[in-house]
Write a structure and sequence with these properties.
476 residues, binds 2-(hydroxymethyl)phenyl 6-O-phosphono-beta-D-glucopyranoside, 14 helices, GH_1_N_CS, globular, hydrolase, alpha/beta, 3-stranded mixed sheet, TIM Barrel, beta-glucosidase activity, 8-stranded parallel barrel
């Protein structure tokens, strides 16, 4: 039986703000991640007005990858990584976001980082905007609610595409652009779009406007990237949590379709280059006045992505509710527990089959190559007396997900480019700001309060994943 392609991109994934630290090194500006405090499960991270004394901002130091990347990449190479997904911190290149010229020290840092990867034949896979846009663009422009952001982003994209055109082939534009479908809470609008809502504002229409500008910016970047290097593969990045119906009651099934429409129309625009009709009808019903020009619509058709990158951690469940004739979806109210699966300590429902389902969903709809650019198990790790973390639970999680991914390739025939488990080295959680919610195959000695030596050590999963890569997944 055939398996994964011979050149399958096994690797690991991180984001600049969650591991680099060095928040003021090399001329870096303040990013949105730099003004978020540490929270916990059920305790949201606080978004402060600038940096306030006495608060704990875990991303400022993170795991100090900025100074330690050579040792860390050496460990990735030891595991056999074929690729390494990280992001370029926009604030290292354009510290405020609206400068005309890039910051050379920031560009040099990523030159050195990519050279270090290439030394081991590790392909960099690069996200342009991963929850770390310049904070100045929030305070001066209101974030992505402002059309001017398109120009700033495209300038940033052009600068890095040009600089790294012979070092980086695989790119993604906006990380988990669809997280902001949950505009009810403050987290996603701020991390995706630098949007802070004022009391009484219609959050939803602002979300659609910000997302539209991002989609236009993404399309312009794709178009520009292909001119700079026709070999570039530029993808979108979608947070895939498929939404199942709670039962086979027809109304539950239809509610799941409607919920999927609200969370995944972003992929339609990225891939097909136009808005789905159901969403245009929704805008009309809600009487949203959106700034979407004819020129924008042209741009969207020209900047279609080459592949679909997506994260997969969990599935969701919804059901039909009384007094909801239009099947409106509210991510904070419309979801219910899945009685058939267990959840992590952070309430994320563990569902390996959902990964196979997701791969089929995307491939049936779009027939584009797919790339699982995040997957993993956030858990509390406890080093044993010999200092090693015996993370059998993480091995089990990854094994079960890779097995389902393999069925999607071998039995269902989806075109899969690679697999990069999230947080291949322990790092700061995006959602909670904790160190305690660990994903790594490499342990980092640091706790939620910032104590620890930052020393790295191999977990049991390190050796397991090394073996998976060595055998190209044949042993799963
Ligand atoms: P943390 C929500 C749902 C799915 C993925 O998340 C998400 C989120 C945001 O919390 O984020 C992605 O650290 C994201 C990464 C993030 C990772 O998943 O909250 O792309 O930056 O760290 C895991 O456990």
């Amino acid at each position: 039986m055939a398996g994964f392609k011979a050149d399958f991109l096994w690797g690991g994934a991180v984001a600049a703000h969650q591991l680099e630290g060095g928040w003021q090194e090399g001329g870096k500006g303040i990013s949105v991640a730099d003004v978020m405090t540490a929270g916990a499960h059920g305790v949201p991270r606080e978004i402060t007005d600038g940096i306030l004394p006495g608060k704990n901002y875990p991303n400022h130091e993170a795991i100090d990858f900025y100074h330690r990347y050579k040792d860390d990449i050496k460990l990735f190479a030891e595991m056999g990584f074929k690729c390494f997904r990280t992001s370029i911190a926009w604030t290292r290149i354009f510290p405020q976001g609206d400068e005309l010229e890039p910051n050379e020290a920031g560009l040099q840092f990523y030159d050195d980082l990519f050279d270090e990867c290439l030394k081991y034949n590790i392909e960099p896979v690069i996200t342009l905007s991963h929850f770390e846009m310049p904070y100045h663009l929030v305070t001066e422009y209101g974030g992505w609610r402002n059309r001017k952001l398109i120009g700033f982003f495209v300038r940033f994209a052009n600068a890095v595409f040009t600089r790294y055109r012979s070092k980086v082939k695989y790119w993604m534009t906006f990380n988990e652009i669809n997280n902001q479908a949950n505009y009810h809470e403050d987290f996603a609008p701020f991390t995706n779009s630098g949007v802070k809502y004022k009391v009484g504002e219609d959050r939803e229409v602002i979300m659609y406007q910000a997302a539209h500008y991002e989609l236009v910016a993404s399309a312009l970047a794709v178009e520009a990237g292909h001119k700079i290097n026709p070999d570039f593969k530029i993808g979108c990045m979608i947070a895939m949590c498929p939404i199942y119906p709670l039962t086979c009651a027809p109304d539950d099934m239809m509610m799941s379709v409607a919920a999927m429409h609200r969370r995944y129309w972003f992929t339609d625009v990225h891939v097909r280059g136009y808005y789905p009709k159901h969403l245009l009808n929704y805008f009309a019903r809600r009487q949203f006045k959106l700034d979407i020009t004819d020129e924008d619509l042209q741009i969207l058709t020209r900047g279609r992505v080459d592949y679909i990158g997506f994260s997969y951690y969990m599935s969701f469940v919804t059901k039909a509710q009384e007094n909801n004739p239009h099947l409106d979806y509210d991510e904070t109210k419309s979801l219910v527990k899945n009685p058939y699966v267990k959840a992590s300590d952070w309430g994320w429902q563990i569902d390996p089959v959902g990964l196979r389902y997701s791969l089929n969903y995307f491939y049936d709809l779009y027939q584009l190559p797919l790339f699982v650019v995040e997957n993993g198990f956030g858990a509390i790790d406890q080093p044993e007396s010999d200092g090693v973390v015996n993370d059998q639970y993480r091995i089990e999680y990854m094994h079960n997900h890779i097995r389902e991914m393999k069925k999607a390739v071998v039995e269902d025939g989806v075109d899969l480019m690679g697999y990069t488990p999230w947080g291949c080295i322990d790092l700061v959680s995006a959602g909670t700001g904790e160190m305690k919610k660990r994903y790594g195959l490499i342990y980092v000695d640091k706790d939620n309060e910032g104590n620890g030596t930052l020393a790295r050590s191999r977990k049991k999963s390190f050796w397991w994943y090394q073996d998976v890569i060595k055998h190209n997944g044949e042993n799963i």
